[in-house]
Amino acid sequence: MERLQKVIARSGYASRRKAETLILENKVKVNGVLCNTLGTKVSRKDVVTVNGRTIEQEEKVYYVLYKPEGYISTTQDEKDRRKVTDLVPNDKRIFPVGRLDYDTSGVLLMTNDGDFMNLMTSPKHHVEKEYRVKLQGFLRKEESLQLARGVEIDGYKTKRCIVKNVEYNKKNETSIATIIIKEGKYHQVKKMFESVDHPVLKLKRERFGVVTLKGLRTGEARRLKPYEIKQLKESAKDK
Ligand code: URA
User: Fold this and answer.
1) Domain spanning 129-208: which CATH class is it, in words?
2) Can 101 be counted among the known catalytic residues?
3) Predicted confidence band at 239 (pLDDT cuts at 50, 70, 90)?
4) How buried is residue 194: exposed, middle or buried, by Cβ count under 10 Å (0-12/13-18/19+)?
């Protein structure tokens, strides 16, 4: 149980001081009943409204998951495949931030903070995503440049990006490359390499903004540190 003014303040609706004023001004209801007594204790199950708006009581949580291949990034699947939400604590309604394909592995952020999710995935914002990708055939220098300048996928020209650290496996006729993009269109990386005739054989996201897989084994998740959350929010504003 917690004091009403604290619950209101923690939700970000108002400062603790302002919350106290709102309570005294008859603006706050608990479970539909007016409550103007400072210090009233409420639990997470109580529905608190201020000026008719419900206060979000759930603590916001942020995870980075090392998504294994063979997991789906949605919360429901008609084929009953394994889900990324099976790999994080499930006491809260946590959703993946954007998607990684079923056969893609790597960094996947997960949260119950809808604003954060929108900020990270909105096309207006620009968080860097770094992928290591295995390709069919030898990716030539001109093709890397073409990708870096932007290629057309589904009638849309991709923004400038970075393609680097290209290595060849002569025996298997495959290449490995790093690509850093700031967008996140559906199947973007696969479609970009397909556009230069190098189908993606394997895809791993190694970084999302400042967040990497360091210290995580496949299938493991950890809570993001406050500075990581802050830096992610700031990097969303970068051009
Ligand atoms: N691009 C893709 O094509 N697939 C992913 O899973 C992520 C980026």
Assistant:
1) alpha beta
2) yes
3) low
4) middle
Amino acid making up residue 74: T
Q: Residue 97 corresponds to which tokens in the numbers above?
A: 């931030």
Query: Rounded to the nearest 5 degrees, what angle is found at the Cα of 136, between the Cα atoms of 134 and 142?
Result: 90
Q: Can you say how many angstroms the Cα of residue 70 is from the centroid of all Cα atoms in its chain?
A: 19
Name every protein residue with a CB atom under 6 angstroms from any ligand 1 atom. Answer: 100-101, 104, 187-190, 203
Give the predicted TM-score (pTM) of the model.
0.81
Looking at CATH, the fold of the domain delimited by 62-124+210-237 is given as: Alpha-Beta Plaits (3.30.70)
In a mutational test of the pocket of ligand 1, which residue from 72, 99, 128, 178 has the highest number of ligand atoms less than 8 Å from its CB? Answer: 99
Under a CB-based contact definition with an 8 Å cutoff, are residues 133 and 177 in contact? yes
What is the rounded CA–CA span in Å between residue 141 and residue 18?
Answer: 60
Alpha-carbon span 59 to 206, nearest angstrom: 28
CATH fold label, 2-54: 3.10.290
Q: What is the pLDDT of residues 97-132, one digit of tens each?
A: 999 999 999 999 999 888 899 899 887 878 999 999
Burial 35-53 (b: 16+ CB within 10 A, else e): beeeebebeeebebebeee
